[in-house]
Amino acid sequence: MESQEVSVKPVMNVRLKSDTQNLDEIVVVGYGTQRKKDVTSSIAKVGGEDLSNLAAPSFDTQLAGRAAGVQVTTPSGVLGAGPQFKVRGMSTISSSSQPLFIVDGMPIATGDNGDGKTGLGQLYASFNAMSDINPNDIESIEILKDGAATAIYGSRAANGVVLITTKKGSKGRTKVTYDGYISAASATKLHDLLGAKDFVTIANEKSENWGDQGQAVYDPAGPNTNWNDYIFRTGFQHNHNVAASGGTDKSQYYVSFGFTEQEGIVRSNDMNRLSIKADLTQQATKWLRIGLNGQMSRTKLNGVSNEENSLGGIGFAGVRMLPNVAVFDPSDPTGYNIDKENRKTLGRGSNLSYIDNGIQNIIWALDNNVNRSSNTRTIGGGWAEITIMDGLTLKTQAGLDISNVKDYMYWDSESGDGYGRKGLIEEVNTTYENWNWQNILNYNQTFNELHNLSATAVQEYTHSQYEYTDAAVQQLSDRFLLIILSPIHLG
Asked: Going by DSSP bridges, is the β-strand pair 235-247/251-263 parallel, antiparallel, or unpaired?
């Protein structure tokens, strides 16, 4: 319907008029397109302009609240944490609720491309595969939500389908655009923790009731430290994108360069991405159209330990730091408050006992341990479309999605997680490959300007594989050797 503006009156009668242009809008569906007024299944469309105005490095988080029946939630504020999708609730035949993502007809890898848990250590740098796609390169997103819309994709579409169409060139003079922004992010709400005075009162009462000979374990004369002030911060982000497009009646092109750098709201957590995209369409003859498209990105992420049930994770250790001890200790060789008797744990200050469970100084861990992931990813392919007769076309398309992920972990031997292992270095190199070939025979005809007939036949081949190598070393004789063997840490 067309939008209207009317003056406010006690009684208002408004008659809406249909927007013919909107009804003729083209919507991407499974292996093709339809006019919006002809679509009978449940499909939600989000325009690229709705995404480009949002300050977020990954388009999947930008979908939150923009499509009815689609829930997008991010499990934590740590960069690289992939969002969780639910299309019309939980309806999966597997253990995941992630929908099928398709970029320009090519199914792509999604989820966490970080290694997770392998070998001696645990690589906590979660890496959201969807963050490799530059949101500025997206023309539109269609979300197929019901069985009628997703049936053509089979069991892969049990959780819905997200169809992503990237920008293409158009006829006309060369058009150069620049998009950029600077933004800041901070935590809206943190844990409401006890101050030093209240903590000492309650902790000593617990110790006395537990039977510690009526002795006060925690010193009320210590400092009042708000650990959240050291763990969390205001994270700044800047994004820049330059694109050029244009073409003639027979040739159209689109090229873009993008750069994003973002600080997380957690100390030592940051990400940067460099991306390039190119698309070329050529009308070779009256009956043949061909096209090439490709995008490459290089993403680096400095992650933090936030694994569930991990003594060294931010979520666990951050809320358990003693508020009556300091973060730093100038008398300690490291400059951080680390217990002199039990080097693994947070320094006890003037308390009689160190922290329960031997939890490390979380600021020491954030500043000295490394959980890093980098990904070089290429998505692209080519296609040819043959017009056999009026309304009947055959399109063949081949594409690839290749990711080379390098996970690197360094645990310092001086304290915390690396203390018991006398230091630890682990590196995992993983290669993900996804190849796809499609042949689509499509018939679409309108009779008497009233009746529409369409039919689609699809043959598709997909091959996926991944391989990884894992190398780790621990229990080195000297901490100096750890520094020599960790050039990424020094960089």
From this structure: antiparallel
**CA distances to 14, 363, 456 from 75, in Å:** 44, 22, 39
* Separation CA 182–CA 6 (nearest Å): 37
| Torsion sign across C-alpha atoms 114, 98, 163, 151 | positive
**pTM strictly above 0.85:** no
134 three-state secondary structure: coil
The answer for residues whose C-beta is within 8 angstroms of residue 148's C-beta and 6 or more apart is 40, 41, 42
Give per-residue burial for 277-305: e unless 16+ CB within 10 Å, then b. bebbbbeeeeeebebebbbbbebbbbbbb
Q: For residue 405, what are its two tokens?
A: 């992920």
What was the pLDDT predicted at 491? 38
Q: Could you give the CA distance from residue 309 to residue 485 in angstroms, rounded to a whole number?
A: 29
5-49 confidence digits (pLDDT tens): 888 888 888 887 766 555 557 777 778 777 766 666 777 888 777
**Residues 139-169 pLDDT 10s:** 888 888 887 788 888 888 888 888 888 999 8
User: Could you write out the DSSP letters of every residue in 426-469?
Assistant: EEEEEEEEEEEEEEEEEEEEEETTTEEEEEEEEEEEEEEEEEEE
Contact 295, 106 (CB under 8 A): no
Mean pLDDT of 78-83: 74
Q: Closest by alpha carbon to 291, among 302, 279, 299?
A: 279
